[in-house]
Amino acid sequence: MSLNVSALRDAFPILHQEANGKPLVYLDNAATTQKPRAVIDAIRDYYQGTNSNVHRGAHYLSDRATADFEAARDTVAAFLNADREEIIWTKGTTEGINLVAQCIGRERLKAGDEVLITTLEHHANIVPWQQACLATGASLKVVPLREDGGVDTEAFHRLLNERTRIVALSHVSNSLGSVTPVAELIAAARAVGAITLVDGAQAVSHFPVDVRALDCDFYAFSGHKLFGPTGIGALYGRRELLEAMPPYQTGGEMIEVVTFEKSTWNQLPYKFEPGTPNIAGVVGLGAAIRWLQGQDRDALAHHEQALLSAAHEQAEAFPGLKIIGNAATKVGVLSFLLDGAHPADVGVLLDKQGVAVRTGHHCCMPLMDSLGIPGTVRASFSIYNTLDEVDVLFQALHKIRSFL
Ligand code: PMP
User: Fold this and answer.
1) Does 217 contact ligand 1 (Cβ within 6 A)?
2) 239 CA to middle of ligand 1, Å?
3) Which residue in 49, 179, 199, 219 has a CA-CA distance of 20 to 30 Å to 225?
4) 355 shares a domain with 261
5) Are 197 and 160 found together in one domain?
6) Which Gene3D superfamilies match (predicted)?
7) Is a pLDDT exceeding 90 seen at residue 316?
């Protein structure tokens, strides 16, 4: 199960450069991952050889673009263990959650109903539900965290009740890396008749996801956090629910028949895909997933865990460093604070040494409020990071500490 990280890094051209005169150490993978050559080539090849509008069936190029576009849908469906009609192209996780909140949230919620989320949600899995609650008179309930930054599952079971209509959970926290045991929570949610949505933005690049095994109703993710392009993502929806839902946006492509009096909707998944889609993005995302599936995913996961353990070990030994979020099950993220230093300052000083991290609230203001901190420094790891880079991060932090 050993991984040739150097060969893997060669697949990512962007990594081989300097930042501020130092070798680039890219530890901002939770914000976005880098793209392998296979993805860059697929997008270039699409524009150089295939570019055309899809589903018009008018000519050779359009047929080829359509075939590539729909093949990518098959790739995503297989990746999540779904049917192709259940995969809707979106701009990303944010749009997927908004689609569900608007199309089913507002339809199903009424005054007295409850939507259950957790304290560690990204704003993308808070604000759409807050708006749906405002529009319908339902209320938003929030599951607290344990001390270690994992979701308090006992509190979840206490808060879940027959008024809970929707349960929306992050699979993995972008701020802390904690993995939520979503399968167990989904089973409980389904037992009270609630609809379930999983925000998979931070999960899909770290471990395989099977929506049938999870038994969730919706699963949203973004291409750019999965080695694919920005501006493209996918939403899995359980077929019966998608069939019953009204469209999200209307216009061309999503219709069956239009008259000035009324319109009828296209079959799934096209009912939810109005207008010309991000074809190059879809092709790039398909290429990213095919590339990932060509790797030994167990070896990748093993390598990522080795990076995280090494980072934790050094963090625990670092004077004045406080790890934020130390759940037993976590992936990809080391969030921390340095005594006496604002996270933003630490980020700037790391950048000067070539180390890219993210600082601040990471789009999780309520989580930071609950922890009583303004934000964290977040180093987030991916498959192409090395143990040497973990060392560089801590050498840089030692330097920072010496002149703070
Ligand atoms: N949820 C989580 C857990 C995320 O990490 C992110 C991206 N930071 C999002 C949702 C939103 O994803 P996007 O910006 O790609 O729509």
Assistant:
1) no
2) 24
3) 49
4) no
5) yes
6) Aspartate Aminotransferase, domain 1, Type I PLP-dependent aspartate aminotransferase-like (Major domain)
7) yes
Q: What is the CATH number of the domain that holds 381?
A: 3.90.1150.10
Q: List the residue whose alpha carbon is closest to atom 4 of ligand 1.
A: 201
**Over the stretch 199-231, which tens digit does the pLDDT of each residue have?**
999 999 999 999 999 999 999 999 999 999 999
Ligand 1 near 115 CB (within 6 A): no
Using the 3D structure, point to which of 276, 293, 310 is the last residue of a domain: 293
Q: Does ligand 1 lie within 6 Å of residue 202's CB atom? A: yes
- Looking at the structure, tell me whether residues 76 and 19 fall in a common domain: no
The DSSP letter of residue 48 is I
Q: Whose CA is nearest to atom 6 of ligand 1?
A: 201
* Centroid of ligand 1 to alpha carbon of 94 (angstroms): 6
Question: What tens digit of pLDDT does each residue of 21-49 get?
Answer: 999 999 999 999 999 999 999 999 999 99
- What's the rounded mean pLDDT across residues 176-191? 98
Range of the domain at 378: 5-30+296-403
Which ipTM did the prediction report? 0.99
Which two tokens mark 8?
């893997």
Q: Is 278 in the pocket of ligand 1 (CB under 6 A)?
A: no
Cα separations (Å) of 233 from 28, 162, 166, 340?
19, 32, 22, 39
50 and 191 assigned to the same domain = yes
Q: How many Cα neighbours within 13 Å face the side chain of 118?
A: 29
| Amino acid 124: pLDDT | 98
Show which residues are catalytic: 363
Output the residue whose Cα is nearest ligand 1's atom 8.
31
- 72 & 189 share domain: yes
3-state percent helix, strand, coil for the chain, nearest multiple of 5: 45, 20, 35
What pLDDT sits at residue 58? 86
- Nearest atom (ligand 1) to Cα of 95: 16
